[in-house]
Protein 1
Amino acid sequence: MLAARYHVYDSAVVDAPIEEAWRELRDVVKLLPIVFGDAVKDYRYVDGGSAEKIPSRFEFTLHPSGEKALEEVVARSETEHAVTYRLLGQVLGAEGYIATYRLRRITTEPGKTFLEWPREFGVAPGHDPEKVVPSIAALTAREVAIIKEHFAQRRRSV
């Protein structure tokens, strides 16, 4: 029997030129504290990984649950401004999780960047898809909104 796969997607226009946004977002370990704030601890590359090495594993701990996540950057394109990563194991009731966040230049507004973040995943055994899928969709939307606000605040403070 085939396991169900779920897809969620969110996007936003970010108030920063693509080069500036990419400098901050190309390293997934630097992205973690932006999108999770104090809800993530102990984030780091493991097994000799780094922002410059592909593939590279990284781990982090979610707070307050203490749930640990091990993920792996499997691709990054400097020309497409995209990072693809996958979950190793399960977290938040999801497994087989793979996501790619991409930045696209907005040619009609040079100071702005389009961010999109599709995710695909399965629901881990023992978890309810009716809870996990909306939870991951909400997480995706929240992370995109936080990134948008992150760059908006930078513009306001300049």
Protein 2
Amino acid sequence: MRKLVMSCAACALALTAGIAGATGLDGDGSSGLGAQMDERRVDIKGGVFFPPMILASAGEVITIRNEEDVVHDATAIDGSWTTGPIQPGAVAEVTVGADMILCFKSTYNEEYKGAFGSVESGEAPECFELSGAGDGSNDGQN
């Protein structure tokens, strides 16, 4: 019986620690979520930039993380800026400029598209086109 009580106590402790970790609660009772929320990040995964659009102001640094098994980059649709190659598992940073082209793609796979949207309006730039969204035409072919 004593072993069962000790096992249950150990399970309860492990469960409590797991819940605290999942909720971001630190040992002092404060939330550890702030640091995670502060990171401005776009992931390359599953055949897309995710999220496809992130709201950003001029001067903000956005991290782009490649979670795929092949090299990608983020390059302005007009080629005016690029992260350069981002190896699998690596990250690159982009500082959003006031006058920069806000839509980007991967030159390694041009179906991957993303954009920096306006924090003020919450809107996407005019150049934005979702990955795999097509041109809107439907010619009846599959």
Protein 3
Amino acid sequence: MPVDGFRLFQLAAQGFCCSQILIMIGLEDQGKVAPELIRAMHGLCGGMGRSGATCGVLTGGACLIGLAAGKGTVSEQAHPRIHRMVQEFLEWFEEAYGSLLCEDILHYKLEEGTDYPVKCGSTISAAYDKVQELLAAHMEPENEYEEFI
């Protein structure tokens, strides 16, 4: 399902950053609320603490994949393709944006504060769509004979 641009703007206007918005939209699509998770995602904002390092949309997307396919309790098992999904997302992201670093993608340094560039909205939307595509492709029931084909 495509991301609602107005919803992205609304969340950004409320002070949420790229990584938080990506997870919030994913949780909303699942009918869930997890303020602790949203709070934890704040550390990834702006390339981890607004340092301009690894893009928060990239790390948020990896977390969104983990939310759907990761191990969360002792009794759960991670989806066997979780690492493949994250790797494909990483490869797609680097090809689409030319870098994994927030500063390289934005072409400037983030200053202290909470304002987020408009460019992040389209990046969030594209990343969310890619995560949904990867989940749909990899989370289908596995064919037990797949490895022999």
